[in-house]
Amino acid sequence: MDNPTPPPLAVRHLRKSFHGVRRVEDVTFTVGAGRVVGLLGPNGAGKTTSIRMLLGLVAADSGEALVLGKPYRALADPLRQIGAVLDAGGLHPGRTAREHLRIGAAQGRFAARRVDEVLETVGLAADAGRRIRDYSLGMRQRVAIATALLGEPRILVLDEPANGLDPAGIHWLKQYLRTFADGGGSVLLSSHMLSDVARIADDVVIIAGGRVRSALSLDEALASSGGDLEQYYLSLTGTDERAPHAAR
Ligand SMILES: Nc1ncnc2c1ncn2[C@@H]1O[C@H](COP(=O)(O)OP(=O)(O)OP(=O)(O)O)[C@@H](O)[C@H]1O
Ligand SMILES: [Mg+2]
Is 28 helix (H, G, I), strand (E, B) or coil? Predict the structure, then answer.
């Protein structure tokens, strides 16, 4: 029974300093197949830095960040294994969504039909010929998600995907990620909004000050908080004035 299939995503004891200041202190979690995991924490908690280490964009000082048991940079065909959305602001404003996706498909050597498929998936088919500069923030998020889906990955990593989405967009995202995970996919998404994570995720990893404070299923977190997830979150992240020492 040794040596089971490695989890889709696993980070262990990640640590990272910038300019001599420890910003990620000890981050450990896994994302299993079929799970949507929310990385939740206040601004500056270390969510984006942890995600960047997982994607091989920032080198960890110590610890490991593995995708299917390997560092991202050792993956043979990463864009077909894992799709990532880090910053929807990085899109070229003068291009249309279709142009942007065609370039992405060509770069990744994906079938040209994927462009129309992903436009359909994210609900942008009707607007695909408009320039990205004229898009709302939520529409840009959808373009970024569509780009991540081009290679038909089984793992998705989304940094603050709910940012800028209206309630219909959040509903769409939740449904999409649920179907994706129910088909055996794995999702890691970050948010500083408890309400986003509570709506979308199966498991919640709460991080503050570069450390994991709690890693539970949403149901377990609800049970251990007596149903008051917000109070639980505030006390764990040290942002609750009634429990100033809880995050020590
Ligand atoms: N390249 C960098 N150089 C210096 N400091 C950095 C760098 N990247 C991140 N940091 C610092 O590391 C800490 C964690 O930042 P990070 O972006 O991971 O937080 P976050 O949890 O994603 O926050 P937010 O909710 O605001 O997105 C912050 O104090 C940030 O200023
Ligand atoms: Mg961030």
Answer: strand
